[in-house]
Amino acid sequence: MRDNKTILAEKLASLLDGQGVSLTAAEAVGLFETPADPKLGDLALPCFKLAKLLRSAPPKIASDLVGAFAGTAGISKVEAVGGYLNFFYDGASAVSAVDEILQNERFGSSDEGNGKTVCLDFSSPNIAKRFHLGHLGTTVIGNALRNLFDFHGYRTVAINHLGDWGTQFGKLIYAYQNWSSQEKLEQGGITELEKLYVRFCTAEKEDPSLTQAARDAFHRLECGDEECLRIWKTFKDISLPEYQKTYDLLGITFDSYVGEAFFSDKMPAVVEELREKGLLELDDGASVVRLDEEGMPPCLILKRDGSTLYPARDIAAAIWRKKTYDFEKCIYVTSAGQSLHFAQWFRVVRKMGYDWADGLVHVPYGTMSVGGEKLASRTGNVVLLEDLLSEAIRKCEQVIAEKHPDLPNREETAKAVGVGAVVFNALSNSRIKDSDFNWEDALSFEGNAGPYVQYTYARTSSILRKNGGLPPASPAGYAPCAEETALAKKLSEFPEAVDRAIEAYEPSVISRYLLAVCALFNQFYHNCRILGADAEDARDFRVRLSAATRTVIGNGLDLLGIRRTEEI
Predict the structure, then answer these.
(1) Which CATH number applies to 117-265+309-370: 3.90.1150.10, 2.30.30.90, 3.40.50.620, 3.30.530.20?
(2) Of 81-95, 362-376, 514-528, where does the model show the most confidence?
(3) How far, in Å, are 196, 222, 332 from residue 171 at the CA level?
(4) Which of 49, 260, 480, 558 might form a disulfide with 165, Cβ 3.0–4.6 angstroms?
(5) What is the pTM (predicted TM-score) of this model?
């Protein structure tokens, strides 16, 4: 458990110091790991990492250290297995772990980020298109990362960098001027805009001259053409209220909606700076920054006609954000397909001499499909996120109505569980993996899904209600059984799970951890009588263990951006 690990790390650092090896306790903590098989102990020290420092074979190091750690408080057994030193906790550790959790409602949080700012650029839909399932990844991953950094004390700035600039708006302006009208736009709203975009992309395949027509329209927009600006603003005014509906349903807020267009007047300064620093070169009429030494193709800054490209806008935005927020990190959550783009312009910022470029982080994620079919707005093959969430809520309400027809606030609970099911499904696997959404997996109350976690949380809440609250203290000298010890140990690992999730920018570390906690809690729930325990000390400890589980699951759900459910 965490306290035990600290104690063991301090002891290891002291032992190594006696052998002439300088290692801090904080550095020693990183040498320990949790065995995949509980039979191998609660904590392990792989001695391979010490072999060079001590100039000895790992099995001998492990064997020599057994005696030194014997009798350590909280440790019942120490054994050497090959090159590993395995530690087994005693029952008192389980009790102390529960006590530690219940003393801190924000168990797992830290203040390591105090005084530091992290900007998170996520969601960032292109205006004139509705949210579809493809937008889900960036939105919920970004929100979860924001919650994680908040939990560690950072000041976070959530930025919705709207896609409101670029050639696609030249396409839409052309389509609107030739095939639509203000009346049609008022009647059809964002649906009309989507139809126009699909129509243009279809027509463009048959008539390549439309590509240049779209570029010309966007160039007029960049140059401040009043009619183009009026049409573009209409597109934006129609889009934002649509997005807000989805954000409200997901419970996500942003600190900034500054989009690409905001930086249109800031890009010339970036281009000029690149020229002054000798980084900009002409390549077949386009202006580029060479990245040959980095093993990457040139980074395109300006088109032949002088129009800017995405890298120029992103560089301008990064410089502005650094000046405005003085960020420690600026994190961009986008699809893996944009990895080269970010690698290129990150490198350009570095070549410009900005040392803060090291704080620019791209967090890529895989594609999401439904029934094996990939989504594409160009062809109109989309699954609207609003429709998906509504269907999830409807299905959850049906299940809840069958199982608990008298449940109060059934509609609100169904909304929390339905939306949570979709979010958890998106965060349940490594973000870089491609995923395929299906209802059976997402809405399971018994399997590896969000409703299962929310149901387990509700079960812990029910135990506390029925007990009339929390027993004031753990019983003195109580000896936990195997199920209780295993659950307490897993709960104590929550801070480490949070650390790993932040370090890897990986929310699925939390979702997988929560599933493991739920499995252990439900095993404990079925094998150990809680409110009906034979002895008062057993009842008190088991209620407190349930309350500690509630705290950890609740904090985990908060980090993932999923509502807690007191009853299901």
Answers:
(1) 3.40.50.620
(2) 514-528
(3) 9, 14, 26
(4) 260
(5) 0.89
428-471 per-position pLDDT tens digit: 999 999 888 888 888 888 888 999 999 999 999 999 999 999 99
DSSP state for residue 327 in the 8-state scheme: -
List, for residues 162-179, the tens digit of each pLDDT value.
999 888 999 999 999 999
Separation between Cα atoms, residue 124 and residue 143, nearest integer Å: 12
Backbone phi, psi, residue 372, to 5°: 85, -5
Whole-angstrom distance, CA of residue 443 vs CA of residue 245: 22
Grouping H, G, I as helix, E, B as strand and the rest as coil, residue 117 is strand
d(CA 210, CA 200): 8
| Separation CA 145–CA 559 (nearest Å) | 8
Eight-state DSSP code of residue 298: P
Q: Fold for domain 385-560?
A: Isoleucyl-tRNA Synthetase; Domain 1 (1.10.730)
- Dihedrals φ, ψ of 281, to 5°? -130, 155
Burial 292-326 (b: 16+ CB within 10 A, else e): eeeeeeebbbbbeeebbbbbbbbbbbbbebbeebe
Average pLDDT, the chain: 92
pLDDT at residue 1, rounded to an integer: 46
Q: Which of 56, 94, 7, 80 is nearest to 478 (CA)?
A: 94
pLDDT at 49 (0 to 100):
85
- Cα gap 201→376, rounded to integer Å: 12
Q: Can you tell me which residue has the tokens 């509906």? A: 245
Q: In what order do the strands lie in the sheet with 329-335?
A: 155-159, 117-121, 329-335, 360-365
Q: Which two tokens stand for residue 393?
A: 């809520």
Q: Which fold has domain 2-89?
A: Gyrase A; domain 2 (3.30.1360)
Q: Helix, strand or coil for residue 301?
A: strand
Domains of the chain, residue spans: 2-89, 117-265+309-370, 385-560
**Does residue 111 or residue 134 have the better pLDDT?**
111
The answer, yes or no, to whether residue 492 has pLDDT greater than 50, is yes
Distance CA 49, CA 379 (A): 54
CA gap 363, 187 in Å, rounded = 39
